[in-house]
Amino acid sequence: MTALAATMLLVAPPRLAGQADSLPVLRIRAPDTLRVTAHRLERAPTAPLATAMSLAGLREPGLPIDVFLSPNDSELARAAPPWISGFADADRNRVVLFPGRTGHSGSQAIETVLHHEVAHVLFSRAARGRPVPRWFNEGLALAAERPVGISPPPRLAWTLVRHGTLSIADLERLFGDGRASDQRAYAVAGALIRDLLRVHGQHSAGRVLALIGQGRGFDDAFAAATGERPMDAVNRFWSDQQLWTRWVPFLTGPVFLWSGITLLALLAIAAHRRRRAAQRRAWDAEERAEAERVALQRLIESDPGASGSSYEVH
């Protein structure tokens, strides 16, 4: 990793009112070719870091986190699946990002990936390095990226339509099983965690991680922190999604689609008829005006005094 340390920027986000005692210090290391991206990350907003600290239940972030920017032709990039934009190595207090695989906005912006991976490091610290299920960890990291109160993403609706519900074991197995499976797993995990935080409060995840850090298993820690078993929470979540399962198949089914196409066709026909009627009225008006002009011209030719001129012939 030392080959990536040509540029190092120390990012120490300021403390904001109502947040943790301090935020993580990020030491951004990058080769000269990624210097611009490194400076961009230096100016990244700190709100998601504060959210991650709150979700983790941490008041102090711990040791600085090294953030390595790795170009596409690096050994690390070649070894990682092509759809991976970054990863966290919590045991070594470091994050690796692949800026060449990210966009400038949306869920794959380099700043978003940074916050996501730093959140993983913070969650690991809250659990004192003990294992946390992947679905819980990834769902929390997604929650750190955006407000919890937003509605389920369209990808979740499609997942429900195409694949139905998932057990915890099935959800856990989806991670690392290819790009499509990863996308499905992230969609479900993110929505599931948002639901858990909505039902049990913003600090419930931090309580779960703290209990894991004390040596309790995940299921036991989850039940103690939330008052329900993980299985019951997941079943409740899927039960709440029944509105999606009822309406999305209809809205995406052939009957609705053909009805929509028919309605659009009727609207187009009506609009076309209105345009033709307006055109006919315009033509009629032009014909009447032309007829009046011709009649007047003939009258003038037969009787010059009928021209309407103010000059009289004496």
Describe this structure in words.
- By secondary structure, the protein is of the alpha/beta class.
- The protein has three domains: 1-126, Zincin-like; 130-252, no CATH class; 254-299.
- Helix content is 58%, strand content 7%.
- It is built from 13 helices and five strands.
- It has a five-stranded mixed β-sheet, covered by helices on one side.
- The radius of gyration is 33 Å and the shape is elongated.
- It starts with 6 loop residues before the first strand and ends in a 12-residue tail after the last helix.
The CATH first-level class of the largest domain comes to Alpha Beta
Proportion of helical residues: 55-70%
Number of domains: 3
Query: The CATH topology of the largest domain is what?
Result: Zincin-like
Structural class of the secondary elements?
A: alpha/beta
Quaternary organization? single chain
Order of helices and strands: EEHHEHEEHHHHHHHHHH
Supply the CATH architecture of the largest domain. 2-Layer Sandwich
Number of helices: 13
What gyration radius follows from the Cα positions, in whole Å?
33 Å
Using the alpha-carbon principal axes, give the shape: elongated
**Major beta sheet, specifics?**
5 strands, mixed
